[in-house]
Amino acid sequence: MSNPDAILFLDIDDVLCLNRSYGGFDVIDAVHQRHDVPEKVFAEVFDKAACAALETVHQAMEGRLRYVVSSTWREHLDREQLVQVFLKGGLGFVASALHDAWCTPHQSHRGLRVDEIAAWLDRFYQGQPFAIVDDVYSGSSLEPALANQSHPFHHRVVLCEEGIGLLHEHVQPLLQALSQPIIDINSINSSAHEVQPGALDDQGAQRTEGEQ
What we know:
This protein has 212 residues and is α/β, with parallel strands linked by helices. The protein has helices spanning 24-31, 38-44, 48-60, 79-88, 92-95, 113-124, 144-147, 171-178, 188-191; strands at 6-10, 65-69, 98-103, 130-135, 157-160. The longest helix has 13 residues, at 48-60.
């Protein structure tokens, strides 16, 4: 039996969507046919350089990569709607490679990104390599993994700057994480929640619900 494909936990806002011409609210309106120029939204909502960086990662993985959406877009769009957004936005390679369990769990209240990812891993992880790409704002709960060598996500997290998004310099760290060997799943839920006090994930909901 072949090993399962590697997993990339994918945030959208400030990773692929930089909220310049259009953002999450525009996408939601376009999907529900409430936007004046829906095709323009789909064509321009994703940053071309960020998409190119992600495609470089995807191509390097040679078909052995599956995506799990951690963005709050998952709260407003179902799988088929998001697939269409990816297809129309030039990210067909993501649309065709979504994991069967395509998003991190929904909660009754918005929680920490690190806990949402840990909850997905607790339920679906099969020992495959994984990486996490997020932004410094909505992914603030992931920051301890950058420096803390005992953190179960150490060397697996890339945090993009707001308004800048995924860059070519992020490609190699992601590929390195996606080739790292199996980790101890039992360590995830016991230590992944060790975050800075008050570092609430997805506080950007105060800006717009689509900007995470």
